[in-house]
């Protein structure tokens, strides 16, 4: 497990790479950010989107929360939360695509499916209960207008695979073939390990 000193050492590597070696990245990013995509992912320490996708600074706008959820549109919400993140990404950053990245063995989804969220936790039960169809109004309009693409991705951390939801079949399909051969199709809910 990483100690605080390991985190500082990690920053030193980052510093050497971007402020000692190739300084062009932050020379550009000092002017502002223009990420290509927004990623809504779980906070799970095993499913870091930047690490999974191999992107550098400035490439993806990331929001992470338990079970990568987006509450339903509610203009009167006292605490907009993720809704504000989406509004910023869409209206200010004008991202072209939004990727919702789930993963296997998700504790938040486990609490939802097992119905034990209300008993064990103070907030998680209510939070994961929003895991129904939930999309922002502005996002829905842009997707329908063809101005934005919405992706449903799933990281299978047991097999090291990244899958994408295929709306036509209702199945998740591997984006990259497994190292030992053919792509597989799975149902993330049925296939989850808890
Ligand atoms: Zn999770």
Helix content: 25-40%
Number of strands: 7
Oligomer: single chain
Large-scale geometry: globular
Stretches where pLDDT is under 50 for at least 5 consecutive residues are 190-194
Give the amount of beta strand, in percent: 15-25%
Q: Tell me about the biggest sheet?
A: 7 strands, mixed
Order of helices and strands: HHEHEHEHHHHEEEEH
The distinct bound ligands, ions and cofactors come out as:
zinc ion
How big is the Rg?
A: 18 Å
Q: Which structural class matches the secondary elements?
A: alpha/beta
Q: What is the spatial order of strands in the main beta sheet?
A: 2-1-3-4-5-6-7
State the distance separating the first and last CA atoms.
22 Å
Q: Report the average pLDDT across residues.
A: 82
Q: Helix segment count?
A: 9
Structure, described:
The chain has 194 residues and is α/β, with parallel strands linked by helices. The chain has helices at residues 4-21, 24-29, 49-53, 82-92, 107-114, 117-120, 124-128, 137-144, 188-191; strands spanning 37-42, 60-65, 97-103, 149-156, 161-166, 171-174, 185-186. It is globular and about 50 Å long. The longest helix is centred in the first third of the chain and has 18 residues, at 4-21. It has a 7-stranded mixed β-sheet. 23% of the residues are buried. The protein binds zinc ion.
Topology:
Elements: H1 4-21, H2 24-29, E1 37-42, H3 49-53, E2 60-65, H4 82-92, E3 97-103, H5 107-114, H6 117-120, H7 124-128, H8 137-144, E4 149-156, E5 161-166, E6 171-174, E7 185-186, H9 188-191
Zinc ion binds near residues 42 and 107.
What labels describe this entry?
single chain, 194 residues, alpha/beta, 7-stranded mixed beta sheet, 36% helix, 20% strand, binds zinc ion
